Structures are given as structure tokens and as C-alpha cells.
Amino acid sequence: MDNxxxxxxxxxxxKSGVAIIRISGNNALAALKKMTSxxxxxxxxxxxxxxxLKNNEGNTLDKCLIxxxxxxxxxxxxxxxxxxxxxxxxxxxGVLSTLAQIEDFRMAEPGEFSKRAxxxxxxxLTEAEGLADLIDAETSEQQKYAMRQMEGGLKNLYDDWRxxxxxxxxxxxxxxxxxxxxxxxxxxSEMKNNVFKLENSVYEHLKADNIGERLxxxxxxxxxxxxxxxxxxxxxxxxxxxxxxxxxxxxTTRDAIDIHLDIKGYPVMFTDTxxxxxxxxEIEKKGIEIAYSKIKSADFIICLFDxxxxxxxxxDNIRNSFKNNTILVANKSDKLTSEQCSELEKQGCILIxxxxxxxxxxxxxxxxxxxxERFTSNSNLLITRSRYREALQExxxxxxxxxxxxxxxxxxxxxxxxxxxxxxxxxxxxVNEILDxxxxxxxxxx
Length: 446
What we know:
Elements lengths: L4 E5 L6 E9 L5 H6 L13 E6 L5 E10 L10 E8 L1 H12 L4 E3 L4 H8 L5 H12 L3 H11 L2 H25 L7 H22 L4 H7 L1 E6 L6 H9 L17 E7 L2 E7 L9 H16 L2 E7 L9 H6 L3 E7 L6 H9 L3 E2 L8 H15 L11 H16 L6 H19 L5 H8 L7
Parallel strand pairs: 1-6, 7-9, 7-10, 10-11, 11-12
Antiparallel strand pairs: 1-2, 2-5, 3-4, 4-5, 8-9
Helix pairs in contact: 4-5, 6-7, 6-15, 7-14, 14-15
């Protein structure tokens, strides 16, 4: 991390009521000396000043609010100056252009403010990624869980586990330093018991599967069925708009089409796929291959069929081959007799008419119930990124190798490697190789 002072627009560029430009670094107050009439030596931290903002030629750019946050009591842990101007493109450009001409000032890189906060001990990596998730949150459940992570939920859990490992390691290192001393049986039993309990805790944490990742990215629901079953009509009815082309011509849908929706606070991605049948045309064949690949990665499969001509048996192969959760949906129920409808309901089908938009709420309710069974905002802390999962699996492997039936140096190394794997998650070790990837996903000015 260099010592230059960084600056960036922290609100969306464009026409708006207010724009915020953030400056962070040891020389942040230099901007006020250059652009305002304020005496930088007398500015009070966390106090709003209403001033004229001038460019290099002394021309007034805007009337604005200035706030100063003195290190280390700021977001980054450095001196921060916030300039709140009107959200005019001309004003924003003028301010940024003037800042660019100040010595040792430069535009911030993506995520650099949060990266500096991490380096200055204001947050760990899980909290930083929770902040990124909060910025990206589109549903209420995403917002709730991002706040929990940003406030240190995962950090506290992983730090506690790491501290337990370090205590065990300290005991082992002591016995390595004094090889003539035998490890007392009670001490050995206590260490074994602590490792066993920790291993179980990590196992239970990993057992939550990929629910945390799904909460961030969206639960995946794939609509499958033969051509002309009404898959595209169903997707349009669910989205409540003309999201995809609907045609009586079989094979119209060639590619997988995704629609993102919010179902009672949960992000859900619905995918319309090509009709499943024996195809000769190469493009349609490719579309069917894509459909099967989507099925494999789905959390939930809607098996849709035209109830006026097909039955549930057409999905026997899919239901036997893929162990995903499935829901049988009989479309065009408006063309059926009451006896036919009753028989389909006995087979566990939801009856709908995609064209008339009837029965759609039952499908959404079923999906919502399924998600709630797997996750609620009151659930235990969940793994939200694949890198957490990989590190925790590494922790498990090393704890499983732990044993006093080998040289004590190797036993200590198992614990050291497990603690190091936990440190990769929170950033408690040297992990420069992953920092750029994490903070590079942030927006400029955050």
C-alpha cells in the first residue's frame, strides 16, 4: 500500500441532488487548503462546513458541505475529507480535475478505500466482503445477512476457532521445546477433546451446503418440459412481463434464458430452457444440451407439461437421473375436465394455465417454502463464498490428520496448518495473493 492520498466519487456519476467525493490519506486536508478558504489547522473533526469550492483558476465550482474525519477514527483509519456537492456532471468533473492536480493525489482504484480499512485494522476480510454484499444486495434477506457479516458475525466465529487452535499449538510448541518432558495424559486428552469438538463445529458449519452462496447469487429454478408445453408462457407469467418470445412453433427457445426475481425477500433466478425432445437440427441440439447442464446445477426443477396431451411419466427419466427437488406442473388446465384435474392433483401436480396466469402463485409459494426449509435470516452463520468453503475444507483435512501417534512436530504442524487456513478467510496471515481479487470487485469510491 503506497502513501499517496486517494480520492474518488463515492456516489453514482450522473445527474443527482447530491454527489459525495471522498478523499483519504495523510495529506487529505491539502484539498481544503487548495479549494476552500478554510483554515485546515482549525477544522473540527465530524463538523459540517458550508463553503465555496474553487478550481485552480479560483473560479467557484459549487457551494458545498465539507466534513473531516480525523485518523484513526474514520472508515479507512486515515484522515478522510468528504466533499458533498450538487450532483451535476460539470461540478463532479471540475472537482475531480482539481484534485488530480494536487501533488501526491491520485484517483482511487476499485475497492481501495475498503482495502486501506483492512490494512489499517478497521475490518477483516469477511467484514469487507459483507460490505460488498450489502452494496450489491437487491432483496431484504440479502441485506439482512450482509449486515450480519459486515458486523462481524463470521469474523467472530472464525477468530474464535483460530484462537482455540493457537492455544493448542502453544501447548504443543512448549513440549517441542522441552523434549525430555512427557505430555501428561490429562493434557493430551484435553487437546484431543478440543480438536474433536472443533472438528465437529467446522463439519456442522460446512454441512449447510451452498445456501450462503445461493443467498448471494440467487436460488436457481429451471423450467423443463417438451416443446410447446408452455415454458416460455410460464416464465412470462412469473415475471409478469413479456420476458421471452412465445410461439406455437416447436423449438422456438434455443438457449437458456434467465430471469431474476425477488420472492418474499429471497433472490431467485428462473431459467427457461429449450424443449426436451429428440432433435436433428444442430442449434436445437445445442440448446437441449444446455438445458440438461442447467438441470444439473439447479436447486429446483419445474417439470412442466401440457396436461391436455401428456402425463407425468414423461419426466420419469429426469426425476430418476437428477436428485434435485422437483415440482410437477400441469399446464393448460383450462382444457381439462374436473375428473382429469382431480386425478393430476392426486399425482402431486400443481394445475395452472400459464396463458390465463392461473395457479402461478402456488408455484411461487412452493418454491418459497422450499427455500425457507433450507434457510432463514435467523439461521446460523452461513458460508457465503467458495473461498471460505475451500479454506474450511482445508481446516477439516488437517484436523482429521491430528494424532499423537506420530512425532509431535508433525502433530503441531497439523494444528498450525489448520490455523493458517482459517487465517486465509479473515486475513490474519499474509494473503496478498487474494487481496487484489477480493477488493477488485468493489466499485470505485468504496
